[in-house]
Design goal:
heterodimer; A: 200 residues; Arc Repressor Mutant, subunit A; two-stranded antiparallel ribbon; B: 239 residues; alpha/beta; Rossmann fold; six-stranded mixed beta sheet; four-stranded antiparallel beta sheet; globular; binds adenosine-5'-diphosphate; binds magnesium ion; WH-like_DNA-bd_sf (chain A); Tscrpt_reg_PadR_C (chain A); Tscrpt_reg_PadR_N (chain A); PadR family transcriptional regulator (chain A); MacB-like_ATP-bd (chain B)
């Protein structure tokens, strides 16, 4: 995550000091991606070094207030208008774990899938519970609710993928058991489908 | 907590001989007052079968279905139909509204059939329509409403008369994400107010509104996710 850009975007609203920036960040994203104050100050120092922000003044309590520069504004605008790169998918521990579970002998993949699905469902229930309460239309609350939506969609996708893995594994097991009756070129016609005639 | 719905070792076989399909195999399942339970599973896993049995729309091949302490199998057809009008609310995926009746009339119908005076039933219907957020559409016909509005009418119809068991089969199926979410909010509110709810869905995002999620595969319960919170996140602090 680009802490640098997130902080710059907040500074574009108004000059702020470190703690304030962290609070404003969390107001919008919950504690989904916690920022520690040390991280905030390191980033501010770097922003200043790169000419994107200026340590301006101290308020009555001695907080150092940072202000965005013109170069900083350009940087924020570029950030907002450039899509997040998807060229390098983040390393997905779950996908890697399943890939290994399928190939390493003695691992019960079915159990791995089921346990993960329960855990992800739990998380999804938690997000949904939080979402139920986040109904306001104020910008900050809306921001938080959209972050929750993002987590909800990601968890949902993971559960769908786990379901998909489970049925593919079952089909593969049936094909291995009866290789002649299920030509590998048409996996969708495997016998597993026989008891799953759609009936809605 | 008392179980409003209790299925014990319920099996349902469709057809006979080699063509027989075991839609449910010895499934035990409960829904308590104040609880929303989601039933998930791929298509063909027996979700609708479970719901129609719970709603008294079908009879099990084996096992017991008990609603509010009454075993549905022990009832005659008339008594069962009465139970369906008074204790059990059913929400179908396709809304199933009667096109020739207005929203209020659709909602009032089962109450009127049950002997409630027409005036009282209509007044009740308007109140519930208000509750689900479409009080102003009470005199509209289904064809003049959006899918989401029709589904709200269907929910109003399912909950009118303080029914204690609400059964919903893919109630969000044809709706967009946001409208679907509003429907879940309504179901959830009804359960928070004391009803027991069973929500059949194949979408995890919707199942997550439930307190408990039961996974069906080939007519069997294979997994169950409880309600304890993991507290992964906390809300943003108030300003
Ligand atoms: N009336 C019926 N006659 C024959 N088979 C049926 C009937 N109803 C359901 N089935 C079969 O029972 C199984 C479970 O169906 P259903 O409960 O509708 O599943 P789901 O709702 O999970 O998609 C499926 O294999 C389906 O084809
Ligand atoms: Mg179904």
């Amino acid at each position: 995550m680009s802490v640098k850009h997130a902080l710059l975007a907040l500074l574009e609203q108004e000059p702020m000091y470190g703690y304030q920036l962290r609070a404003e960040f969390e107001q919008r994203t919950g504690t989904t991606w916690p920022l520690n104050v040390g991280q905030v100050y390191t980033t501010l120092t770097r922003l200043e070094r790169d000419g994107l922000a200026l340590a301006e003044s101290e308020d009555a309590e001695g907080h150092v207030i940072y202000r965005i520069t013109d170069a900083g504004r350009v940087e924020v605008a570029t950030w907002f208008t450039t899509p997040v790169a998807r060229t390098q998918p983040p390393r997905d521990e779950l996908a890697i774990k399943l890939a290994l579970a399928v190939t390493v002998p003695g691992v019960d993949v079915g159990t791995v899938i089921q346990q993960q699905r329960s855990a992800t469902m739990h998380a999804l229930q938690d997000y949904t519970r939080l979402k139920r309460r986040a109904t306001g239309s104020e910008p900050a609350e809306l921001a938080w609710s959209l972050v929750l939506d993002s987590l909800v969609f990601a968890a949902e996708a993971e559960i769908r993928w786990l379901d998909h893995c489970e049925s593919r594994l079952r089909r593969a097991a049936i094909e291995r058991a009866a290789p002649t009756s299920a030509p590998t070129s048409t996996p969708t016609s495997a016998p597993a489908a026989a008891n799953e005639r759609s009936h809605r | 907590m008392s179980a409003v719905l209790e299925l014990t070792d319920v099996t349902r076989v469709h057809g006979e001989g080699p063509a027989a399909v075991q839609a449910l195999r010895a499934v035990s399942f409960r829904a308590h007052a104040g609880e929303l339970v989601a039933v998930m599973g791929p298509s063909g896993s027996g979700k609708s079968t479970l719901l129609t049995l719970a709603g008294g729309l079908d009879r099990p091949t084996d096992g017991r279905v008990v609603v509010e302490g009454v075993e549905l199998g022990a009832l005659g057809n008339d008594e069962r139909a009465r139970m369906r009008r008074t204790s059990i609310g059913y929400v179908f995926q396709g809304f199933n509204l009667i096109p020739a009746l207005t929203a209020a009339e659709n909602v009032a119908l089962s109450r009127e059939l049950d002997g409630v005076a027409a005036r009282t039933a209509r007044a009740e219907a308007r109140r519930v329509l208000e509750e689900v957020g479409i009080g102003d559409l009470a005199d509209r016909f289904p064809d003049d409403m959006s899918g989401g509005q029709q589904q709200r009418v269907a929910i109003a119809r399912a909950v009118v008369g303080e029914r204690r068991l609400i059964l919903a089969d893919e109630p969000t199926g044809a709706l967009d994400t946001e409208t679907g979410e509003e429907i879940l909010r309504l179901l959830r509110a009804r359960c928070d107010a004391g009803a027991a709810g069973v929500l059949v869905t194949h979408e995890a995002r919707h199942a997550a509104w439930a307190d408990r999620v039961v996974f069906l595969r080939d007519g069997r319960v294979v997994d169950e996710t409880g309600a304890e919170s993991v507290d992964l996140l906390t809300e943003p602090a108030a300003r």
